[in-house]
Amino acid sequence: MNREAVNYVRALKPSGMPSGESVLEEGREIGRKIKMKRSLFLEKNGYDTYEDYVRENIRKGKITWEIFMGLATLEEQKEAIKAAYEFNQRTGINLDTIEIIASQLMALPREYREKAAKPTSFVMNETEDWVNMQTAPIELIFADHHLASPNALETTINAVKAGSPRVGLVSQFFWGQPGFTDHRQHMIDFVKSIGIVSSKWDDHISVDSYMDDGFPGYAMDCVTYVGYALLEHYIIHDLCNTRYQTGLGGLLKEQKSRAAIPVAIHQLLSTEEQRAISYMNGSTVTQWEHDITANYGSSGEEIMFDCLVERKYKMGMALNTIAITERIAVPTAQALFDICSVGARAFEGAKYWEDMIDWSSMDELVDYLKTEGRLFFENTMNVLDEAGINIKDPLEIFMTLKKMNPNRFERTFHHRMNENGTLNPKYPTVLGRQTVDLREEIVADVKKRGVEENALKGKKVAVVSGDGHTYGLAVVDAVLSAMGADVINGGVDVDPPTALDLADEEGIKYIGISIHNGQGLDYARQILELAERRNRKYHIFMGGKLNAILPGDSVPTDVTDKINELGITATEDLYEQICMIRDTE
Ligand code: B12
C-alpha cells in the first residue's frame, strides 16, 4: 500500500459532516414534489422517455447526434434552438439533442456573481428560463454548472422541472468557483441534488458526468479514465441508488484509446436497466488555429470512426460534434450545425466500412483497460478505507476528494506508481504527452533566440490559473523552471485576491496568470485594483485564451492589447515574458 498516498488522504478526512444517507433522503423528499415538464421532443415523437429514443436509435443502427451550445444571451440561445429544428427539417439530419452550456456564473449562488470575473455565455434567473428554453421539439439537457456546483439545488430543481433527461456534471464537483469557499455546504447541496435525481429513477432521469472535466482531465494515463468512472459509478449508482451515465472525449484524440475507453466503461458498467455511456465529445486538443477549414478533415475522420464504434458496440453513445472554431472561441450556432452536417454525411459511408475492419487489437486494448481500470478502482477503495474514510458514505467520499489537489488524484490512487512517484503509462493521454513535448519545444526556441541557460536564476515567480485549465499553466511552470526560475505554482481556480496573497506570502513580485474562459480582462482589472490598494510593486504577466464578450457583442473579441494597456504584460510568447522577468528588478 502506498503509505504517502494513505497519509495524504487521511489528512483530508472531513469532520462534522451529516450522514450522506440523511442528506440524500432530504433530496429525495424535494424530488418527489417536483412535477417534470414533458418535453416538446417526447410529445412530438411519441416517446415515453428520452431513453426510449436512444434505444430505438441503437436498434436501428442510427446515431444520436447532439451539440453543446452556450451563446451570449438567453434570447440568442432560444432562437438558435428554433434554428436547429429548421436545420433538421431542411437537411433531414436528426440533430435532436442540445446540451446547454450556460455561463459558469450559474455555478455560483446569486450573491457571489456580482464580484466574479464574467466568463462567456448567458445566465438563467427564473425557473421559466429553464422550462421555456424549449422553443422547438429538440431535447434539451442541462448538465454543465448544475448538479455538482455550489448552486446545485436551484439548478438541479429547475433542470428536473424542465424535464432534462440527464442532470450533471458530477465530475465538476471539485471545480473552484470565484469567491466561494463554503465547500462543506457545497458538498451537502451536491449530494442532496443527487437525491433529487434519485427520486426520478422510474422516470429514467439520470445523473450525468464528463470524464475530461474531472480528475481524468489532469491524468497522464488512459487507465485513469476507466478507474475514475468506476469510482463515480460506485458512489452514484451503488451508494446513492441513482441512475448514472458519463460522457467523455474532448481530450482524447488517438482513435484506439479514444474508442477503447468508452467501450471498456460500457462493458464494465452498462446493464439492461441502465446504459453507462451518455455521449462522446469531439476532441478539442489538436485543432488548427491557422487554418480552421482543415479541422473539417480531422473532425470528419474522427466522427466516422466514432460512428463505426457505436454501431459495433451499441452503447447508445451520442456523438457531440465540436465546431472547427473550438481553438479560437466559443462556437456560433451555425458553426455547430455545420460540423453536425459533416458528421451525418460521413456516417452515411460507415456501413460500407464495417465488414472490412478487424477489431481484435481494439478488443485487446479494451480488455487491458478493463483489467487495469478495475485494479485502479480497487486500489482507490483500499487507500480510502486504509486512510479511515467511510467508504459507505457518499458525502464523506466526495468531501475528501473535494479537498484533494486535482493534480494529485492520479498519483494518489494509481496502482502502478513507481517508488519515485512517477508513472509510465502504457497508453498516455494526449495532453499529458503534449505538455511535455511543448515544454521542450519552447525551451529550445527560447535558447535559440539567445536567452542563456539559467537566465532566470535567483528570480522567484508565482504562476496560477484563473480557472480550471491546467495544461497552459503546467507548460509555463515547466519552461520558467527550466530557465532557472524558482517557480511557486498556485494551482487552478485562483482568484485575484488569492494570487496576490500567494505572492505576498512568498515575497514575490512576478505573477504569471493563465486564463482561458473569457474573463481575462475583468481579471486583469480586478488584480490591478487590488494591487494598488496593497501599495506593492508587482510585475504581472498573463497568457492563455485572452478574449472577452465586450458589452453589446455576442462573440468574444481578443483583448490582449486592452490588457497590455492596463499595464499587464499579456502575450502567448514565453520568450518575451522570460526577457521581461530577466530584465526587470
Ligand atoms: C483542454 C481544455 C479544457 C479541459 C481542461 C483540462 C485541464 N486539466 O486543463 C476541460 C475539459 C476541463 C475544459 C473545461 C472548460 N473549458 Co476548456 N478548453 C480546453 C482546450 C481544448 C485546450 C486548452 C489547453 O489545455 N491547451 C493546451 C495548452 C498547453 O495550451 P494553452 O492553454 O493554450 O497554453 C499555451 C499558451 O496559451 C501559453 N499560455 C497559457 N497560459 C499562459 C500563461 C502565461 C503567463 C503565459 C506567458 C503563457 C501562457 O503557453 C501555452 C503553450 O504555448 C481549449 C481550446 C483550445 N484548443 O485551445 C478549450 C477552451 C479554452 N475551453 C473553453 C471553455 C469555455 C471551457 C468551459 C467553461 C466549458 C464548460 N464546461 O462550461 C470549462 C471550464 C473549466 C474550468 N473549470 O475553468 C473555451 C474558452 C472560450 C473562450 N474564452 O472564448 C475554449 C477556447 C474552447 C471553446 N472554443 O469554447 N477545457
Automatic annotation (TrEMBL):
* TM regions (residue ranges): none
Every copy of the B12-binding domain together lies at 456-585
User: Cross-referenced InterPro entries, in alphabetical order?
Assistant: Cobalamin-bd, Cobalamin-bd_sf
Signal peptide range equals: none
Q: Which GO terms describe its molecular function?
A: cobalamin binding; metal ion binding
Q: What is this protein called?
A: Cobalamin B12-binding domain-containing protein
